[in-house]
Amino acid sequence: MKHKIALVTGGVRGIGEAIGKELARCGYIAYAASRRASEGYREGNWIHLPMDLRKEGSVEEAFDLIAREHGALDVLVNNAAVMINGPFEQFQPKAWEDTFETNVYGPIQCMKRAFPLMKENGGRIINISSIMTEKPLPQSALYTASKHALNGMGEALAEEWHPHRIFLTKLCLGATYTDLWAEAEGFTQDDMLHVEDAARAAAFIAQTPLHVRIDEITMTPPKGVI
Question: Which of 31, 41, 105, 143 is flagged as catalytic?
Fold first, then answer.
C-alpha cells in the first residue's frame, strides 16, 4: 500500500505534534518539521524533520528531501507560530520581524515549495488560524495581524490553485490547551479545546476526497473566546 505524505510545521510539540501523530495513525507518513526536531528520530510513520521556517535554505532542504524520498506531498499543515502579546505601542521592530518570519513568510515558503509536489495529483494545505482574527483580544495586535496575513494568502491561493485540485483550508481555533498555558493564571484545561480536537479536525480535512472543497472550519470551546 502506498502511503500518503504529510508535513506539519511546528510538528514536535503541542497542536502540531497531535496533528502529525493523528495523521500517522490514519496511515500517512507524517513529517514533524521543526527547528527542535531530532534528525533520524521517528515513531512508526511519525518522523522528525529538522527545518527552520525562518531560513529559506532550511525550508528548501526539507522539501527537497520529501521530493527525493516520495516525489509528492499530499498534505501540508502550516501550524508553527509565535505569539508575542503586549501593548501595541511597546512593540519594537524586532518583534514584528520575528512574528512575521515564522507566522507568514515561513508558511509562504512552504506553500511555494509544496505546489510542485501537489500539482500532479492534488493535495490539501491546512493553515492553522486563530479565533482572534474574528474576535480580537486586547494586546494581541501583532499576532492577530500575522494570522490575518496568512488567512488572506490562503484565501487567494484557494482561488488560484483549485484548478490543480489543491485546496486550502483555514482551520480557525479558539483557545487550545498546550504546555504554554500551564503557568497562566485563571485558565484551566477545562476552559479550552484539547490538541486532540484540532488533530481530529485536521485529519478530517486531510482525508476528505478532493472533489470536496473545505474553505474554513472554526472550532471554539463552549465559552467561545476566553
Answer: 143
